[in-house]
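The instructor's notes for this session suggest beginning with a concrete chain rather than abstract definitions. Hand out the sequence below and ask the class to guess, before any prediction is shown, which regions might be ordered.
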Amino acid sequence: MSLSERKKEILRAVIEQYVETAEPVGSKTVATRLGSSISSATARNEMAELEDIGLLEQPHTSAGRIPTSQGYRVYVDDLMRRHSLSTDDARQIDNALKERPTRQGPIFDEAGTLASRITTYPAYTMASTTGAVCVARFDLIYIDSYTFIIVTLLNNDTVKNKLVHSTSPVDPAMLTKLSAVLNASFTGISEERITHALISATERAVGDLIGISAIIAGFVIELLCEAKAGQTHVAGAMTLLNHAEYRDVDKARRLMSYLSDDKELARLPTPSAAGEIKITIGPENLAKELLDSSVVAVRYDAGGDMQGLLGVVGPTRMDYSKVAARLSYIAQGLSMLLTGGDLLSLDTDMKTRNTGKTGDDDIG
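After discussion, reveal the predicted structure:
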């Protein structure tokens, strides 16, 4: 979408004003914010055109305008200024990280607590392995005509099992044959390779007419997805209630319930590489609980074959630049701690990058 420079300035002004106040923004406010470069009448006309193309909306007839999700996306992609971490923020993060224990679990968990405290939004952390997780061995244990147990050994030496109650009689001979086929065809592969075609071929090979193969395949896919997601932790869910968008307690409760579900968290969009920030806004998040919320996440190297993910969830009216800068700084510190680096080098790098700048917002 091509916008004139003036429209870009106005859209940026509306979004930044709305982020600060949570109140619809009028043309006079925009004109005042931009100074003598634009009149109130011109701002009003340009804002009307921005509304026509879907970047702004008017919540009430006589009210000012607020950004749409599409408007926020244009802002994040093209208009957002890089936020520099304040000295106080950097010092708070450095001190918190230096006090962390060296065991990975507590570090991941407390990183979420730190991120929530410094951003004022709920934060989530995940730790996962970068190596491929797969099933190394299957055992199917017959209990009775309608019951059996699936036992799986993963290649990370984790053992998982599931008690299955069938609605149709289960033939123990078929289970024995199915176990052999599973060990031949389903071991050593990722969940993406467990396809409908593979399941159908397995059913034909063992004469499975009651869907046992599909039940086992579904269990394996779930296991591998959970293993890939690894440890999860959510901190600061109650901070939602501090933001105007979640004063509706039912709305806040639905989102908090969503955040308490590890499986749902594992489905959130993630950055593809360490150091990358990913921002998903409103309807870009497929879950209905996130239609009015945004997610900012960063991936980082956690040492060995481990990677960490740190993210926050909040209203679309979020200071994306500030949140991204704070998460990125925390992630850099975590990576240094977990890979044997020195946090002093992070502090030195911060100061070097800001030589010659003044004021708290110019440091970091």
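Then share the key points. Confidence is low (pLDDT under 50) at residues 101-105, 350-364. The radius of gyration is 26 Å.
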